[in-house]
Amino acid sequence: MSPExxxxxxxxxxxxAYSASFLNMRPAPxxxxxxxxxxxxxxxVGFGKGxxxxxxxxxxxxxxxxxxxxxxxxxxxxxxxxxxxxVWRHIISGTLRSPKQANQTAKRFLQISPVVPDAALYxxxxxxxxxxxxxGELVAKVIKFGSPDLxxxxxxxxxxxxxxxxxxxxxIWARLIHSEFLAWRSPDQEDCWKPPVSLEQDPVVEAWHKxxxxxxxxxxxxxxxxxxxxxxxxxxxxxxxxxxETVLRIGTAAHVMWVCRANEVHFNLLLRVLRGEAPPxxxxxRNTLVRINSFWRYxxxxxxxxxxxxxxxxxxxxxxxxxxCLFGDITRKAGIKGPMETAGDFAGFLSWVWENMQLIDVPRxxxxxxxxxxxxxxxxxxxKGIASNIGEFLRHxxxxxxxxxxxxxxxxxxxxxxxxxxHASAPWQVTLGPVAVMSIVHSCTQGSGxxxxxxxxxxxxxxxxxxxxPQDVTGSSLGLTLRNLGLMTDSPDxxxxxxxxxxxxxxxxxxxx
Length: 513
Known about the structure:
Largest sheet: 3 strands, antiparallel
Radius of gyration: 24 Å
Number of strands: 7
């Protein structure tokens, strides 16, 4: 592609070297709430690729609603436990109802809380159209990034499937509604919940693992997801799925923010060399990537940080691809392979640029780059396109659900951003909800042979890019939540004087069924 063609459509194309790197954000995130991500994981892990796709969900929901309205479930076998149709209709529209966003209340579509697998057949796709993005595939990719190898990732994926299935380990309520959902399946949905297919080999992930950099949010996410999976059977189904959902929310969001920052770092290193600075070696590139894990401070206003990380990503993505479009042929002929695969590859690429500056028209590159930013101001400022989609994803997947439905204000307790105040225009700030706090504390303390303290908890949060100093915990909303939940106690033997307790340490045996 010529530079002129690239400038005409800068967001529709990426250079092959960029496409084959961890910097390329695929699948590209768009709007999604925590429940949308969880429902999409059901579809990805158990309903199989192509069996129940994201695009089929809205149509499935409309067909299911018609069957409910007619009060005619598909024919069931004699003796099948069946809830009276009127009661079942009330359960779907009431007990299992998930509140809509304030701007969705006038729209008619099913929105069911994804407590059991079949709820994901009919609701909670990112869009009410046939082109919804697959949030479940993003989760699978983050698991692969966070696991040491594909076999380990497959193990987590398999354990997630078996935990999401409804078995005798679940409470009686979950088994009842699961059984009723099965009775209302259409003929083409019979036996559609199956063990997951093998995760596909991903050259991008494999190349990343060669770098040996482990300090990324995805690594902590993989461990925490496994930790929460282990709680299955010790909580009610709704409690447990809420725990899974909150871990999915922070894991996917932190990974997306990390990829955004990694793009920014790579482009800034390239600009340094083009300005005449000596290139960094592999060790410096690696250390720079390790240091990008802090995204925001606990309690800070979040909107500006989200806008900054998404727009800087877009600018860096545009700059890297424009440079490769202009000079990629030169590097390829010189034997320089795709420069984005590992820290070593990128360091070698920067060294080549430094040593061959006479082949690179830096003023032309800078001029074209500035022209691109000026001609695409709405996209670059996050008003539309890729940066806007990333901002929408981060705000909605992390933010507490905003709903105009009476009595549903506190429905979402697994958030990481909440409003500072009750007014609709109040700003968003970084604050963990009670379920999010319990999941983080559980993951931080599980399997530890020694008591864990506030310093350990702050270190755990930092793995997801949330900066909070131990001395600031007691005066923060986190400290208040920890005390209200009985998860923090004073101890003269602990560093900092405060020990955190696992909220589920007394649950040694599965809950009675």
